[in-house]
Amino acid sequence: SLLAGIDCLKISKETGVKLIIGEEFYFTDDLSNPSNRLRHVIIIAKNHTGYKNLLALSKYGYDNFTVLFKKVIPRIDWKGLKKYSEGVICLTACGGGILSQLINTRRIDEAKEQAKILKDIFGDNLGLEVQSHSMRRVANLYKDYEDQKFTNHQLIKIGKELDIKVVATVDSHYLMPEDHEAHDVLLAIASGQPIRSGNRLKYTNEFYIKSRDEVKAAFSLYGEKADEFCDNSLYFGGLCENPDWIDPKYSNPSGKELPNFSVYKQSDYKEFLEWKGNQSQEISSKPEDVAYLRYICERNFHCPIGKEEEYRKRLEKEIEIIEMKDLSSYMLIVADYINWAKNSNIPIGFGRGSAPGSILAYYLNIHAADPIKYDLIFERFYYKIKTGLSDIDSDVSQEGKPLVEKYIIEKYGEEYCAQVTNYSTLKPKPYARAISRTFVFGGDPKAAVAIGNAFSESIPKDVKSVKEALEKAPLFSEYANSPKYHQLKKYADQIGDKIISLGLHAGAVIIGKRPLVEIVPLRRTKDGILAVEYEKERAEANGLAKMDILGVSTLDVVDNTLKLIKQQNKPLPKTPWDFDENDEKAYDLISSGNTYGVFQMGTSTSTIELCKKVKPRNIEDLAAINALTRPGVPKEAREEFIKAKQDGREIKLMHPSLERALKPTLGCALFDECSMTLAEDVAGWDLNEADRLRKFIKEKGKNPTKDKKLKDDFIKSTIKNGIEKETANKIWNDVIDNFGKY
After folding, report:
1. DSSP conformational letter for 17
2. What is the secondary structure of 342-373 as a DSSP string?
C-alpha cells in the first residue's frame, strides 16, 4: 500500500533519512484464472514518471482484484509490468516472490525464463532479491513450501548466467527482534485465531531490520560476493531521487485540486451571458465561475421587507471572501448536485453543520436556513485566514445517495472521482475484546468473549486511546494490572490504536481537477468502489476537494410516508417537504415524548425524556435538545438547561458582555456560535479571530502550550476591551473552560 507515502515524506524531510517509495504487488501469469497461485514482486519509483507509473500500476492491480479470505487482493500481470515499466526499479521479492516461488516448487527452468522476460522489460533496473533469513517450512494454507537458502543459491546462479544484479535485502515485518512477539499478536488478531493456534500465518524472530554486518554474515558462504550483494542494495537506492513528487503540490503549487465548474454547460448559460454583459467592468471581467455565482445569488435574492440593505451587505461580504479564496467553483459544484437531486425528487435535508451560516449558500439552495433570521455566523463556515475547504454536509435519502454519486461521476468523469477511505484502528474497546480473545482469557473462547466485553463496556465513551483507557477505565486498568491478564498492558504501546483495516467514509466523495490516479494512491473495495487510500484529513491536506453526501434513512421514511398518504388520497403539504415550522400539534407531539423513531428526537430514552422536560415550542428549542443529547455532554449540563427552561426565570450572567452569547441559550454554551459571539463581545475579537476560541473548545486540552497562549491572549484582549482582570479570569475559568462539556 502507498497510503503512508505522504506521511513518510514528511518524516524524511524532518530526519534527513532518504525515502524510497515502492509497493509489493501480487503477480499472476493469468488474470483470467482467479485460482492461479499469486506471487510477489516489488516495484520502486526512481523519479516522478516512475511514481506516476507506480500509482497507475497500483490502480491496475485493484482493477483486476480478487477476494481471498474475505480480503481484496489486487493483482497485476505481464501486461501491467510492461505498460508501467518506465522510471521504476523491479525487485523479485521474498520467498513467495515472482521467481522464488517457482524455485521453491522446483520449476527452476521456468524461473530462469521469467527472469529473462523481466530483464527484457526492466533492463538494468532489475534486481534479484536474496534474503538474509534461513526460513524453511512446508506448504500450508497460507504459504508455499519455502527454503530461503536454496532459493538464494538458485537466484545467485541465475544472476550470474543472465548478468542480472543480485541484491541483498531484508524481509522486515517489524523493526527490532523484540517486536516479533507483538507482531505475532497482530497476526493472531487479524486471523481471528488464538495466539497458540497452528492454523494461521506466523513468522520467526528473524524478520526485523538488520545491519549490513548481519546481512553480510548471512552470505559469508559466498565470500567477497556478500559485499557486492549489499552494495547492490545501495546501488538501486542511489538510482532513486528524493521523492518530493509524492506531494501533489510538486506538480500543482497552488495546492488546490478543485475542478472549475463548467458554467457553459448550464441550461441558463445564455441568460447568464446576457446578465453578465449588463454588469460593471469589474464584474463582467471576472472568470465565468466567479461571475456565475454572483448571477445565481442575484437571481435568487430575497429578504424580509425593510431588510434589503442588511441582507445585501452580508451577501457581499461573503462573496468577497469566497472569491478571495477562489472557492466559487466549490460552492457551485455543491449547489449543482444538491439542486439536481431536488429536481430529481430525491429527498434532501434542509442543511446542517456550519454551511447554514452562509447566506450565499442559502441563495444557492444548498440549505434552507436563513442565517440572519437565526443568528448564524458565516465565520463558523469560512473566514479570511482559513485555508482549505469547509465541509458542506448534505443529507440525502439512502435510496437517493447512489444516484447522486452516479450523477457526480457522470458529470466530472470516472478518472476524476473517488470515495474516501476510513482507517479502522485498534481503539480501546476493540483492543480489549481482541486481546481477550487472542489470549483466551477465562480458559475458553466463550469466557474470553464475555471477559473482553466486560473490559470494553467499562471504558467511558470519551476515552479515545488505549493508554488513556489504562489510566481512566476502572475495570480495564484493574485487569491490566493483574498478572493473570498482563497482556492487556503489555501490548498497549505497540499495537494499541494502530490501523488494522480500511473502510469507506460514510459520505465523502472526491472530485479532482486532474485524473486522481496521477497524484494519489487509489484502491477498490470488495464491491468494486474506487477510493483514494487517504482518509479525509490526508485527502484534504493534499488539496483534494471532498464533498460530503450522507445517506440518512429518516429521509426515506418521510418520503415513503408521504407516498402512503398520497395512496390513501389524503391531503399532503403544499410541496412534499414544505412543513410549517410553527405547527403547534407537532410541538405537542414532541413534548409528549411520543417521538420513538423520530430523527434526533427519539433515538434514546434520555432524548425522549429531554423532549418531555424541555417541552419545545420552536426551532430553537429543538436545536437545544439536539445539542444536549450529543455524546459526551454531561448530565449536569442537561439538568442546568432544563431547570432554567422550566423555571422561566431571568438568566443572571456574570457580566453584561455575555448576554448576546449566552442569554438565548439560558446561560448554557450549547453551540459553536456561543463561543464565537462571546469572543467577539468579551474580548473584542473579530469573528475571524474568534474561531480560535471555537477550535480551543473542540480540541479539549490536547495542546496545553497552545491553550495557555490562547488564554493569555484572551485575558489581555478582554482587559483591553474594558473588563476588569478579575472578571476576565473568572469568565475564562467558569465559562469558557466549561464550554468543552457542551
Report:
1. P
2. HHTT--B-S--TTGGG-HHHHHTTS----TTT
Report how far residue 278's alpha carbon sits from residue 284's, in angstroms, rounded to the nearest whole number.
Answer: 8
- With 0-12 CB in 10 A as exposed, 13-18 as middle and 19+ as buried, what is 112? middle
**Residue 49 near residue 98, CB atoms below 8 Å:** no
On whether the CB atoms of residues 297 and 363 are closer than 8 A, the answer is: yes
Q: Output the nine-digit C-alpha cell for 351.
A: 442543511
Instruction: Count other C-beta atoms under 10 Å from residue 30's C-beta.
Output: 11
**Can you give the pTM of this predicted structure?**
0.88
* Contacts by 453-457, CB closer than 8 A, 24 or more apart: 455/479, 455/488, 456/428, 456/429, 456/430, 456/432
Task: Spell out the long-range contacts of 460-468 with Cβ–Cβ below 8 A and sequence spacing 24 or more.
Answer: 461/631, 461/632, 462/631, 462/632, 463/428, 464/427, 464/428, 465/427, 465/428, 465/496, 465/497, 466/426, 466/427, 466/428, 466/431, 466/492, 466/496, 466/497, 467/492, 467/493, 467/496, 467/497, 468/428
φ, ψ for residue 3, nearest 5 deg: -65, -25
C-alpha cell at 605: 430514552
Asked if residues 191 and 197 have their Cβ atoms less than 8 Å apart, the reply is yes
CB 366 within 8 A of CB 336: no
CA dihedral over 672, 677, 682, 688, signed as positive or negative: positive
pLDDT at 1 over 70: no
Q: Is-contact 173 200, C-beta < 8 A?
A: no
Q: What is the pLDDT of residues 223-274, one digit of tens each?
A: 999 999 999 999 999 999 999 999 999 999 988 899 999 999 999 999 999 9
Check: CB of residue 358 under 8 Å from CB of residue 378.
yes
Q: From its phi and psi, is residue 316 left (phi > 0), alpha (psi between -120 and 50) or beta? A: alpha
Sequence-separated (6 or more) residues with CB below 8 Å from residue 117: 78
**DSSP notation for 645-678:** HHH-PPPP-SSGGGHHHHTTTTT---SHHHHHHH
3-state secondary structure of 209: coil
| CA pair distance 225, 233, nearest whole angstrom | 13
Gap between the Cα atoms of 97 and 459, Å rounded: 44
Pairing of strands 39-45, 66-68: unpaired
Buried b (16+ CB within 10 A) or exposed e, 41-61: bbbbbbbbebbbbbbbbbbbb
pLDDT at 576 over 70: no
Mean pLDDT, range 276-283, rounded to an integer: 94
- Please answer whether residues 580 and 604 qualify as being in contact, where contact means their C-beta atoms are separated by less than 8 angstroms: no
For residues 484-521, one letter each, b for 16 or more C-beta atoms within 10 angstroms of the residue's C-beta and e for the rest, the string is: ebebbbbbbeebbbeebebeebebbbbbbbeebbebbb
Q: Which three cell numbers stand for residue 294?
A: 454572483
In single-letter form, the type of residue at position 742 comes to Y
Cβ-contact 490, 524 below 8 angstroms: no
Q: How far apart are CA 172 and CA 42, in angstroms?
A: 14
Tell me the CA distances in angstroms from 464 to 426, 454, 480, 487, 635, one per residue in order: 11, 17, 17, 20, 20
Maximum pairwise Cα distance, the chain: 94
- The whole-angstrom separation of Cα 300 and Cα 275 is 14
Cα–Cα distance between 194 and 434 in angstroms, integer? 10
With beta carbons less than 8 A apart as the criterion, state whether 54 and 13 touch: no
Q: Is 564 exposed, middle or buried (0-12, 13-18, 19+ CB in 10 A)?
A: exposed
What average pLDDT does range 137-159 have in this prediction? 81
Work out the burial of residue 657: count CB atoms within 10 Å of its CB; fewer than 13 is exposed, 13-18 middle, 19 or more buried: buried
CB 677 within 8 A of CB 660: yes
Using an 8 Å Cβ cutoff, are 429 and 456 in contact? Answer: yes
Give 549's strand partners. Answer: 394
Owner of C-alpha cell 402512503:
564
